[in-house]
Amino acid sequence: LVCHSVLLYNYKMMSNNNNQQLADLLFPGGCTADWYETLYAPRMLPPGAAVTRLGPSPTGFIHLGNLFMAYVNKKLAAQSDGVFLLRVEDTDQKREVEGAAESLITALAYFGIRAEEGVCFEAAGGGIGEQGTYGPYFQSERGDIYHSFAKKLVSEGKAYPCFLTEEELGLIRAEQERGKLPTGIYGAYAKYRGAGADEVKRRIEAGERYVLRLYADRVYSGLPIADPGTIRVRDGIRGELALPRNVMDVVLLKTDGLPTYHFAHTVDDHLMRTTHVVRGEEWLSSLPIHIALFEALGFAPPIYCHTALLMKMDGGTKRKLSKRKDPELALSYYIAEGYHPAAIEEYLLTIINSNYEEWREAHPDAKPSDFVMTTEKMGVSGILFDLDKLQNISKDVLAHIPAQELAGFLTEWAGREKPEALPVLTREWDTLVRALDVGRGGDKPRKDLSYAKQIFDFISYFFDEFFRREDPMPENVPAEDVRAILTDYLASYDHADARDVWFEKIRGIAEAHGYAAKPKDYKKEPERYKGHVGDVSTVIRVALVGRANSPDICEIQQILGEARVRARIGAADFKGL
User: Fold this and answer.
1) Fewer CB in 10 Å around end: N or C, the chain?
2) DSSP assignment string, 419-463
């Protein structure tokens, strides 16, 4: 027994020496993992404070899922006096899109999402910068950090360099698929497990490319592939999960030395002291890998919160929102259309927590920040994104925003999306504010406008540069009657008339030209009249605003001013109307 113990001790010492030699060969010099642990010390935050992060990859357009995650992360941190940080996960440099990080920050800022820490716009110059003491916050700039923890794993025999070529990997996959085995590198397929420092050095000097892999069996004491065992993880949204333990020798560092997402986020979430990781359910299948990496590194994992996928109704079926099919998935859609950030926030909270609408009904005047969000109230099946519901909520939100503030929002939109309108709206600011305020007073303010583009189209007739006659005159009013009605209207027009006086004049014009002074009179004896006073009012409305439907004409005239009213009524020849 003594001899056996001595032999075992000598074997472990030889193995440890070989591991350390291999680690020093692969990662000569540099700071140690322990040094980084000291540098990024635990945060000094109140008990229960959440540290959350948004970690987008700059490889494509910014979408609704990013915004959904951002709201959840920011709210979890804000309501617990914690920290919300923005980290750019840019290690897939082949797919990186130039300017994507800037677009991301701009889009999030539009919706009122600003991280307290991480990647941001610098105060001076407007370029991309960073704030906080746990950076760098671009993963591409954290290479030395990843290498120090990779070296730690190699020195402990938990990671190894793998020289399998693309051709060899293809052959292994084909063999596994034929045998209906799990695909990946494990067990007998892990050809370079245990390779000594001398062999590794020879291969590197020969120019052979390699990746660094996790030595899964070393982490899990040799569990067989046929029975990997089970891990139990408590998900912040889904409760306790039972998942198969990872047995794959997953890649930690790629051939270019950059980390995979799996390895980078493990190291970063630990060093940045992240407490909650909110991400989509598509990452559930990777959770065993991530738990394996936390165990291998000796880190306590954060609380993972896997949200349901964003879905939409397509006919009678519910499907996942698609980048290809659904323009409303892109955040640029909402910015271009001019949805108000407050409306987006209000809507997203209704799909983030199932009890938000009940809370809103009980607290109609409260701020969204007063609502306490819980991950337990988040859905676990497909979250239905309903654009119609968003527009209805937006109508209600806009109805409660003062006209002066709404005018500012509209001019900001015009500056981005309709620059030719900006000088007009700025020059005629008072007209703009009054136009936006039409019908918004009283106990039941009008609620028919959802977003800036729609609002501008609706009020554009107030401005001569954008005034168009879009609708025809009523079919039952011949051209000669149109001219006569408008000639009489212009002759009798007095800008100072009260509403009742003004309308009595229109009734008089109607009767003078054979139209009933009241719709009910026309309904009783349609054969006696050409139409009714409503048709005459429509003639005036089309001439004045270019549309058959609009808010109260009397109020519109007061906003347009007498000169503009007379110019529009008198300037047109109305041929073909």
Assistant:
1) N
2) GGGHHHHHHTHHHHHHHHTTT--SSS------SHHHHHHHHGGGS
CB 338 within 8 A of CB 455: yes
Question: Could you give phi then psi for residue 541, rounded to 5 degrees?
Answer: -65, -45
Residue 129 sits at φ, ψ, to 5 deg, of -140, -170
Q: How many Å apart are CA 178 and CA 544, to the nearest integer?
A: 76
How far is the CA of 281 from the CAs of 55, 237, 262, 321, in angstroms?
A: 15, 10, 16, 14
Are 250 and 289 spatial neighbours (Cβ–Cβ below 8 Å)? yes
How far apart (Å, rounded) are the C-alpha atoms in residues 403 and 462?
A: 15
Please give the Cα distance from 264 to 401 (Å, whole number). Answer: 44
| Six token digits for residue 511 | 């009767």
Choose among 544, 552, 551: nearest CA to 568. Answer: 544
Rounded distance, CA 127 to CA 171, Å? 47
**Chain Cα centroid distance, residue 447:** 26
What is the C-alpha to C-alpha distance for residues 281 and 235, in angstroms, rounded to an integer?
A: 11
Selection from 506, 499, 421 nearest residue 455 by Cα: 421
pLDDT tens string 378-394: 999 889 999 999 999 99
Q: Can you give the length of the chain in residues? A: 577
Round to whole Å and give the CA distance between 143 and 551: 62
Cβ-proximal residues to 228 (8 Å cutoff; 6+ apart), any chain: 220, 244, 245, 246, 247
Q: What is the pLDDT of residues 312-322, one digit of tens each?
A: 988 888 899 88
> Where would I find the H helices in 27-59?
33-39
Short-list 388, 317, 380, CA closest to 352: 380
pLDDT in tens, 415-441: 999 999 999 999 999 999 999 999 887
Residue 111's contacts (CB-CB under 8 Å, 6 or more residues apart) are 67, 70, 331, 334, 341, 344, 345
Cβ pair 307, 378 in contact under 8 A: yes
Alpha-carbon distance 106 to 122, whole Å? 12
Q: What is the pTM of this model?
A: 0.88
8 A C-beta contact, residue 280 and residue 306:
yes
